[in-house]
Amino acid sequence: MSCQNCESEGAVIHLTQIVDDQMKTLHLCERCAAEKGLETSALPENFPLTDFLAKMGPEDRVPAEHAPTPPCSFCGLEFSHFKELGRLGCPHCWSTFEVQLRGLVRRIHGGSQHLGKVYLSPDPSVSEREKQLETLRRKLHRAVELEEFERAAELRDEIHATEPVV
Amino acid sequence: MSETPSVRDFGLSWLDASGKFADIVLSTRVRLARNLQGHAFGPRARLNDRTAVLEQVRGVRSRVDVLEGSEIQELRELDMRPRRILLERRLASRDLVGKNGSPPAPGTAVVLAPDQPISIMVNEEDHLRLQTLLSGLRLREAWNLLDSLDDELGRELPYAYHHEFGFLTSCPTNVGTGLRASVLMHLPALVLTKEIGKVLQGLSQVGLTFRGLDGEGSEVVGNFFQLSNQTTLGKSEEDLVDHLDRIVRQVIQYETNARQVLLRDAASVTEDKIWRAYGLLRYARMLTFDELMNLLSGVRLGASLKLILGLCVYSLNKIMNFSQPAHLEEAAGRDLSPAESDAHRAALVRRILSDEGVVTPDEGSSDENGSRAASR
């Protein structure tokens, strides 16, 4: 079988994808696969989380053709690779894939707001502000839970005012 | 290179059965997953990430109370046997010691605190896994120990933390608090009365999960179950450990009730099972680890129900720990074939049991009360 992309090389990579509940199989040569950003090296054994990720609903899927999420700028991890591995690459991945991860985290833990220990960075100037922000965020979380939306809006504004300008 | 003296006794304090409900709850374990800013997580970490993480940990030890005078065991510098001993004592994970005979990854290490049952796995799936292992049911105490270490470490090392997701981890199932608390329980009566299924099913409905003796994916051997929290985010650490504590106490109550049912409805069969198990352990010449665990379960039940008198839980815990393959080899001072291992295991069990002042009931006293009376 020849590569579906360049039609000159033999297809050695057979990629089965499920997009919008449709199963599609792509037959590609190594070069075209690499151009599409597919990792062709042997992957470590699958983790149980992989099954979970495979069952993720459509809203968590990255519609590859429409809006591809760029890979993590720190470690280079692609979201598709995360779905295979079930493991993130670095702390920065959590910001890069924040939207997709929020959905996943909600499904695993029933929510996405951490309510445990508040961590203050060793840098004292950052930590004072963070402390204040953390308190406000928790108040906001509580207000939303209690459906006190006016209070929530006030808190949201206060958070915006306190947050560092990027 | 050989094991240093501190590893020899490290991770064994739980054996002394000093904790609450120690006959049913063998041990309490709590671990916290933490990662450092600016470095890739374990599976994608490069050599310089791994080295930098290890060096940062090495550097802050003198500034963290609990870790002052602590020892760092780099897995790569240890022979196979000491590595397996760390694994058998639950101080290192299977990933850390190297899977299927492959050498451990660079930078992997275990930090052992000198005075407290606290250790840190370095460069596992997460940069740091802080953990503690205590005897009996002591969840709050275990959490408090780790909490203060975590406070101190976090002041010295820049943790990866997100205002919404909490402490960031390599796997989303650990994010938030990064806390996994687990309690190792012995539940033979619930198994014998076939009530265990209901109990285990109930666990998942209250956000808990269970596994066998050997951690994730392991089978249940010898009626030993590890109960732990399933989720790590959306509740405070105190709520997570208190919730587990409440459920564990309920399970203890169920187990105690099931034991009473056994004594009431099947006293002679139960007593027979227990003494047969004791007889086999006392005189067998070869024992596989699984067989030992199953027999030990019977004897542990007997000791707990005071059907076997003069046998302390500490000795049963010692048997559990020191009959593991690497521990047997360490005692023998050489590698052992599986058959040799079974023989050494049986000899160890005979030696420990013969040191105990177990009183065997008089022959002919077949009913439960008779045997109890005769044994004192």
Description:
The complex is a heterodimer of chains A (166) and B (376). Chain A is mainly alpha-helical. Chain A has 7 helices and 2 strands; from the N terminus they run ββααααααα. In chain A, strand 1 and strand 2 (22-28) form a beta hairpin. The N and C termini of chain A lie far apart (52 Å). With 376 residues, chain B is an alpha+beta fold. Chain B has helices spanning 5-9, 47-60, 80-88, 94-97, 139-156, 188-192, 196-205, 237-265, 267-283, 289-304, 313-322, 325-332, 338-355, 368-374; strands at 25-34, 71-74, 109-112, 118-122, 128-135, 161-162, 166-167, 179-186, 208-211, 224-229. The chains are: A mainly alpha (166), B alpha+beta (376). The interface between A and B is large, with 37 and 44 residues.
Inertia-based shape of chain A: elongated
SS field, number of helical segments of chain B: 14
CA-based gyration radius of chain A = 21 Å
Q: Span between N and C termini of chain A?
A: 52 Å
In N-to-C order, the SSE pattern of chain B is HEHEHHEEEHEEEHHEEHHHHHHH
Cα end-to-end separation of chain B: 50 Å
Strand order, largest beta sheet of chain A: 1-2
List low-confidence stretches of chain A: 40-46, 58-65
Shape of chain B: globular
Largest sheet of chain B: 8 strands, antiparallel
* pLDDT averaged over residues of chain B: 90
The succession of helices and strands of chain A, N to C, reads EEHHHHHHH
What's the number of helices of chain A?
A: 7
Strand order of the largest sheet of chain B: 2-3-4-5-1-8-10-9
Into which percentage range does the β-strand content of chain A fall? 5-15%
Portion of residues in helices of chain B?
Answer: 40-55%
Largest sheet features of chain A: 2 strands, antiparallel
Report the average pLDDT across residues of chain A: 76
- Coarse structural class of chain B: alpha+beta
The assembly state of the depicted protein chains is heterodimer
